[in-house]
Amino acid sequence: MRAQFVLSEIGVGLRRNLTMTFAVIVSVALSLALFGGALLMREQVSVMKDYWYDKVNVTIYLCNKNDAAAGGSCTKGAVTAQQKKEIEADLKKLDIVETVHYETADEAYKHYRDQYGDTALASIITPDQMQESFRVKLKDPEKYQVVATAFSGRAGVYSVVDQRGILENLFNMMRGMNVAALFVMGLMLVIALMLIVNTVRVSAFSRRRETGIMRLVGASSFYIQMPFIMEAAVAGLLGGVAACGMLLLGRYFLIDAGLNLAQSMPLVNFIGWDAVITVLPLVVVIGLLMPSLAAALALRKYLKV
Questions:
Q1: How far apart are CA 299 and CA 170, in angstroms?
Q2: CA 43 – CA 126 distance, rounded (Å)
Q3: End-to-end CA distance of the chain, in Å?
Q4: Does residue 144 contact residue 164 with C-beta atoms inside 8 Å?
Q5: What is the chain's pLDDT, residue by residue, as a tens digit (305 residues)?
Q6: 8 A C-beta contact, residue 228 and residue 299
Q7: Where is the ABC3 transporter permease C-terminal domain positioned along the sequence (predicted)?
Q8: Cα dihedral sign for 186, 187, 188, 194?
Q9: Beta bridge partners of 58
Q10: DSSP conformation letters of 48-102
Q11: Which of 168, 203, 213, 285 is the 20 to 30 Å CA partner of 154?
Q12: Residues near 184 by Cβ (< 8 Å), separated by ≥ 6?
């Protein structure tokens, strides 16, 4: 009988404040969708870093005969065969180095033509203008500085380039988008909490006669407050479910269909459905607990029992 009464009171409360309840659901859904999206964006950045950092190399460019005018370690002309042997031997001695691949000037020219053959500059570049290089794959790409310190300025070495730096601008942009999403999520969360508190206040005021009677007949504080808390929980749960739907639809339309980024950007390793599904329970739990706690705190002020 008590459970039936609580459920009936929840229904009455939701119908009585239908407009505000709908506003709570929408604001909770948007804030949680942004929260889930921020978590997925962070996971996407992590996946891309693991994927690309494992493929990028540290490149040690060697001096050629045209680099003497550049000064530095190339003032004595092109790298000698002995210098190349010493550089390769020293690279292989480093514990952080996984593999070392030597690229000749002819191979570098071929790769350049494959990538930029349609440009005007490619038509005037000759193989003797290309630099020989060592492509070094590290066990830990974060330790690039060890190689840079050891070989920068060395005789025969023109420059040491970490290809990882090319990706940093992309990752920084994605991190910035993540921060922006979290900021908007926080703003929406504040709006949702204010709506929840206001809804509870209006509901408590409109049902003050019923709660007064319940207080007179000896009902406990928990029993009186439960319908109000459950109303907020139901609204939050609906908002959480709606947020889950937004995340699923967003993953589907952005990556699998609609924009179809998976096909238009084949070199990007996008997060899978498993990452999205892992986030959904957390979104639902937060959607259920956040309004419940906000309602409980509001009731201490607006419903004295």
A1: 47
A2: 44
A3: 22
A4: yes
A5: 455 555 565 666 566 667 777 878 888 888 888 888 888 888 887 777 766 666 667 888 888 887 766 666 787 778 888 988 998 898 888 888 888 888 888 888 887 777 666 666 666 777 777 888 898 888 877 777 888 888 888 888 888 887 666 666 767 777 787 787 778 778 877 887 787 777 777 776 766 666 666 666 666 666 667 777 888 888 889 999 999 999 999 888 888 776 666 666 665 677 888 888 999 999 999 988 888 888 888 777 655 54
A6: yes
A7: 183-301
A8: positive
A9: 136, 162
A10: HHHHHHTT--EEEEEP-GGGGGG-GGGTT-SPPHHHHHHHHHHHHH-TTEEEEEE
A11: 168
A12: 34
Q: State the DSSP code for 140.
A: S
The number of C-alpha atoms within 13 Å of 193 and in the hemisphere containing its C-beta is: 14
Query: pTM of the full predicted structure?
Result: 0.64
Q: What is the amino acid identity at position 194?
A: M
What token pair was written down for 123?
A: 């038509």
